[in-house]
Amino acid sequence: MVIGSLLSISSVVAALQLGTQWYLPLGMLFFLGVQGLGTIVCVVARGLQKPDALVSLDRAIQVAGVLICLSVVSAHIGYAYGWKFGEVQQSWSGIRSFGPLGDGVAWLVALFLARWWLCGARGWCILGGAALALTGSIGPLVALCLSIIALMVLDAWRYSGRGFLSIWKRRAIIATWVGFGMIIASFQLPDFASDGQAEQLARLPRHSGVTIQVTRLLPSRHQGDDHTSNASWSANERLGNILISFDLVRHHWLLGTGYGSTSLRFQEVPWRAYVPTDFVERYEQGIWKPYAVNAWIQLAVSGGLVAFGVGLWIWVRFVVATHRRIDFWSEPRDAVDNWSFMWVLLAGFMLTSDWLLAFNLTFQLICIGIAIAQVHGSTVLPLSINLTASASENPDCAPALGRA
Known about the structure:
Order of helices and strands: HHHEEHHHHHHHHHHHHH
Largest sheet: 2 strands, antiparallel
Radius of gyration: 22 Å
Helix content: 55-70%
Oligomer: single chain
Low-confidence stretches: 221-229, 329-334, 378-404
Shape: globular
Mean pLDDT: 79
Number of helices: 16
Strand order of the largest sheet: 1-2
Strand content: under 5%
């Protein structure tokens, strides 16, 4: 509510200054608030009224995660047969498969993979690791690594030496199953397509999985022919957008320039000096527009350092509060506490994803995680209740991590 109020104030001020072009971002901000607050209120109210509903929600989310990962795998396998099942990109770095949800699916897979890893679901970790590797995305992999490092710091602060080693020994074993899935996804895709399709596919490499993630980080001889051959082109684009956003924050550091202003007010700063040459013409023609690279930059640009500071404070408090709810020494253990914590933690490390957008599935899932944390005794808001006993019947989370 506090962040929403700050963004609303800055957006209304910007609308009064700039006129009709701000009707759309004001509408998007409204739908963002309705989507986020509506999800949290609905889940909290339902959880308090009927605790068993959270178990059903947990199972539904589990099924959704499996289907999302299977859609990525299906798109990749179908590409070998010449079938069209969602988005698949083939370039000089190899094949990146996303499926019907598009390239944003990598962040959804990362959320479910983090959940399965923390809960010790070995089989689903293989599926999630394979799906994430098939996307060829580097940002979600980096976010997962940063989240794991942060979790290690929190556990080291909370547990003694022997307890810490015992917990992370089990987590390391679970991580090997994730790596196994990524290795499976790295085998070169066979070619079962028709003759015409096979000839087209043969012109480009069929690498996938970890191979393409490594290839995208390396210089490519084909970069002049295909900009998607490595990650440097995307990195330069994002760096330019970050510099544009920082310049906007520098000029409007207190209350920001309104929601979505990176795309609308970038011409107020010398943006041509920040973006790659290839993008200047596209930005001038309105084909593409700069964007906030992640949610933190979105907060800083939209609501200034005030909104950024409030958002950072709330996130840290959520992480600490939900981490306290995880007790690996008791059994049986509630699965929902674990993955709600991991989703809140991972949300803060999505450095290449601006999930603070209306109708964004990643934002929807993060709001569900926040709501679950509220119901299960989070100290962030006074509205809390202990439902551990009623939800601990969930069989989806392997209880092995909860034993000494």
